[in-house]
Amino acid sequence: MSSLVGQRIWLVGASSGIGAALAEELHRRGVIVAVSARRAEHLRQVAQGRFATVPLDVTDRGATRRAAQDVRSALGQIDTVIWCAGYWKTFEATDWQADEFATHIEVNLLGLNNVIDATVPAMVAARSGHLVALASVAGYRGLSGGEAYAATKAAQINLLESMRASLSTKDVRVTTVCPGFVRTDMTADNSFPMPFIIDPDEAARDIADGLAADAIEIVFPRRMAVTMKIARVLPVRLWTAITARLAGSS
């Protein structure tokens, strides 16, 4: 198990929820932290003068590159970048919402693309670095109501897996984080059951423990991880029947 003490870590999407809790947890473990998000006042409340704060809208590529440079100026270099940003709104294919789908793509995929663009090339050049991104167990299988969110999370999982193979030759590590349900602003308005839901502090501890253990995949909570890993291997026809029944009962 490696020590996180002294690591210089940039958390993107850290003004609330898992990102804010993870900033606290990493700071407690001796990490030098920089935080970014759109909401500058929320960032200042999270940081309380302890972290470098760099407000950022990840959908702006130029701004993301400038933010990365600001973080380097504050920290010296970026050892690890952690993508915690995300967008979620439920809608079903029976009421297709093209604008909402596009927003999921813009934030969850193109935003991540911008952060990768701003950090990974420097890591490749230095032959050192670590990309960590929060995807979701929602990306394992399709669920009614998750048409947009689950699609982007599945894409993130696949992207990170591909990058892990490519970057391994350059000594740059890639870790995929797949949370289950966590009590955050994103889940506060969900009207459907959220089994095994946990608090952000617990999620932050699980992520930090995984990073300290050099894990390439961090999935939690354990019961949700087991459930979704099993779901991942069910035959397509069976999964369709199960999820159609769940959609019909909601």
Q: Quote the beta fraction.
A: 5-15%
The domain tally reads 1
Low-confidence spans: none
Give the terminus-to-terminus CA distance.
44 Å
CATH domain topology: Rossmann fold
- The number of helical segments is 8
Order of helices and strands: EHEHEHEHEHEHEHH
Please state the CA-atom Rg, rounded to the nearest Å. Answer: 18 Å
CATH architecture: 3-Layer(aba) Sandwich
Structural class: alpha/beta
CATH level-four homologous superfamily name: NAD(P)-binding Rossmann-like Domain
InterPro entries: NAD(P)-bd_dom_sf (IPR036291), SDR_fam (IPR002347)
Pfam family, one: adh_short
Protein name: SDR family NAD(P)-dependent oxidoreductase
Family: Belongs to the short-chain dehydrogenases/reductases (SDR) family.
Question: Can you give a write-up of this model?
Answer:
The protein is of the alpha/beta class and 250 residues long. It has one domain: NAD(P)-binding Rossmann-like Domain (Rossmann fold, 3-Layer(aba) Sandwich), CATH 3.40.50.720. It contains 8 helices and 7 strands. It has a 7-stranded parallel beta sheet with strand order 3-2-1-4-5-6-7, with helices on both faces. Strand 5, helix 5 and strand 6 form a beta-alpha-beta unit. The mean pLDDT is 90.
